[in-house]
């Protein structure tokens, strides 16, 4: 039985990073980096961010979308997405507006985050109507939301038993009967202690034999630039308990935890792999004076892709 974990000051500081990320995304959306009609419901007003921040968020969102589309192309829409540490992410609604809405979409985060997200969804018809359908109903109780094909649940990702119970309640299934599953983990595992993150990843690899995992988080924090990043977060009460090493080490870790294959790139490599016309359009949006700063930022974030099942083995930056 898992121990009940009380929320600490550090937990509250981690929860606050969701607001920061949402503000950065809205700023980039307002400047035309990508289209997102739903993010204004989650954050009302933002100050303008530095061009390198906007461009970094664009690369993150664009790369995640590329791999999500690759996943759906390989297995069709009769699959599920599990979004760990979802925050105020709007991916569910954006997929609903495309031809790539999936059969089941499950989001997990701290109850403080999911409760607020539930409240925002409930009071905005444009969000709520995409969740409900003619025959379905939306059930909101104690900060969790369940509907036909979308589930938003609060839990502590450090407590594996709780995660398993929440996934079961959301209809995720396990083993051979589980549908093809894509797990997203953007800037979440880095906040877990290594033993908790490893236990979670090991379970996911075992539970979903037809799956892919996308992990986006900080890396290479051992140099001076990384030390400044760590110090700045520490000043806000956030410790990177699970800070990852270089991309090659991240890929090796995922393979050791039960995934059949894993690749990892720093975000500079990801940026260079984006289509030329995408990069040209984005580079024309804002003047970038601090090119060296963008390069440093990109070398301290990484995107990893780990897979189970041969159907996903060829997911790649250039696929």
Automatic annotation (TrEMBL):
Its EC number is 2.1.1.233. SUPFAM superfamilies: S-adenosyl-L-methionine-dependent methyltransferases. GO terms for biological process: methylation; regulation of signal transduction. It catalyses: [phosphatase 2A protein]-C-terminal L-leucine + S-adenosyl-L-methionine = [phosphatase 2A protein]-C-terminal L-leucine methyl ester + S-adenosyl-L-homocysteine. It is an enzyme of class 2 (transferase). Keywords: Methyltransferase, S-adenosyl-L-methionine, Transferase. Belongs to the methyltransferase superfamily. LCMT family. This is Leucine carboxyl methyltransferase 1. It comes from Galleria mellonella (Greater wax moth).
